[in-house]
């Protein structure tokens, strides 16, 4: 894996429907040094599912955040997540990446029945297999709507930043896990298949990464916002009370059988997260059924909902797979919450593959 030396710092932005995270960081040959971090609440209605809905308001808020936090870097990376990003694993004859690119240019609509002219299409070879006795290469194809790409580059330009890279989150997280050796100071990850799960506000991003190579990625349209709505439907909490009430939960994997308000809160939280787990299970089963011997060795949770106490136990009990909540990565130096900023950090890494 060839990774460039970044002699100067880079701004990396992760825009979400609830919160926007920004870092200023520098990468050398051995690690990523995060210099500054800040986050802002994304203005309501300005961003949804990867689409910018109110450009001027979003630009105003991010620009103010850059100013308030004395971010001096002008070169910018950006990472996105959207259900509109289409990923497919397609079998091709054994060809070079360049030859496959040529085939995709003229034949992609045979595999993806859509107007290809509206998408930016990227691909990478992720493995080999045999199909009806013939060796084939497995190609991961990613199609991103051009209007998403163009509006994000427009956003960066209007923030007086120089757009260098826009990446999608599954690709970014696969690179940081390939680049690193140990998470949480004790869990080695080389030569393992990882389910990296971003439990976000508006949705859940599932990335299956086999020995550093992204194999499968899907975005599930259930997230922390659904949990908030379910709690508010059951209790007369003010929205400002929600965070406090969720923080009072000691372990979402444990119910005491009573009908107390606390137990009802735990139950609705557990039930909502289990509905997310049910969707995640389908993604994992899709991966494990593709090839004999495919299995997930470890689940890594990150994103807002991963802060719920006991969520790692809930996942490990359900899947019977070692599950951890991301806290640290050996190749990243950061003085604040790595879990919160991991998507921004991950996009700093570049290699020759898309």
CATH fold assignment of the domain at 182-328: Nucleotidyltransferase, domain 5
Q: Which parts are unreliable, with pLDDT below 50 for 5 consecutive residues or more?
A: 1-5
Q: How many helical stretches?
A: 9
CATH superfamily of the domain at 182-328: ATPase, nucleotide binding domain
What's the helix-strand series?
EEEEEHEEHEEHEHEEEEEHHHEHEEH
State the helical fraction. Answer: 25-40%
Counting DSSP E segments of at least 2 residues, the number of strands comes to 18
Distance between the termini: 12 Å
| Biggest β-sheet: strands ordered side by side in the sheet | 10-6-1-2-3-18
The overall pLDDT, averaged over residues, is 91
Shape: globular
Gyration radius (Cα, Å) is: 21 Å
Can you summarize the main beta sheet?
6 strands, mixed
């Amino acid at each position: 894996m060839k990774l460039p030396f970044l002699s100067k710092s880079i701004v990396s932005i992760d825009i979400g429907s609830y919160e926007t995270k920004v870092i200023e960081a520098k990468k050398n040959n051995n690690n990523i040094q995060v210099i500054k971090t800040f986050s802002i609440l994304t203005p309501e209605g300005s961003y949804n599912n990867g689409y910018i809905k109110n450009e001027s308001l979003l630009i105003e808020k991010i620009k103010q955040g850059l100013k308030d936090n004395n971010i001096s870097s002008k070169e910018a990376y950006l990472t996105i997540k959207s259900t509109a990003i289409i990923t497919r694993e397609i079998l091709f004859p054994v060809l070079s990446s360049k030859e496959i690119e040529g085939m995709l240019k003229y034949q992609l609509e045979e595999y993806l029945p859509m107007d290809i002219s509206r998408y930016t299409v990227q691909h990478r070879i992720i493995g080999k297999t045999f199909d009806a006795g013939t060796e084939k290469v497995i190609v991961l194809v990613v199609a991103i709507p051009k209007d998403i790409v163009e509006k994000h580059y427009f956003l960066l330009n209007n923030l007086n930043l120089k757009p260098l890279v826009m990446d999608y989150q599954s690709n970014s997280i696969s690179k940081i896990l390939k680049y690193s050796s140990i998470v949480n100071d004790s869990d080695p990850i080389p030569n393992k298949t990882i389910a990296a799960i971003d439990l976000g506000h508006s949705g859940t991003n599932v990335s299956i990464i086999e020995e550093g190579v992204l194999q499968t990625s899907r975005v599930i349209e259930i997230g922390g916002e659904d949990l908030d709505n379910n709690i508010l439907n059951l209790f007369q909490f003010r929205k400002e009370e929600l965070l406090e009430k969720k923080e009072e939960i000691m372990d979402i994997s444990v119910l005491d059988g009573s009908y107390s308000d606390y137990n009802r809160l735990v139950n609705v939280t557990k039930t909502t997260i289990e509905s997310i787990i049910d969707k995640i299970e389908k993604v994992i089963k899709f991966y494990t059924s593709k090839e004999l011997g495919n299995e997930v060795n470890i689940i890594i949770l990150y994103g807002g909902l991963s802060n719920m106490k006991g969520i790692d136990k809930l996942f490990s009990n359900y899947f019977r797979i070692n599950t951890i909540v991301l806290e640290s990565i050996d190749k990243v130096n950061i003085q604040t919450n790595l879990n919160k900023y991991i998507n921004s950090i991950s996009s700093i890494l570049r290699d020759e593959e898309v």
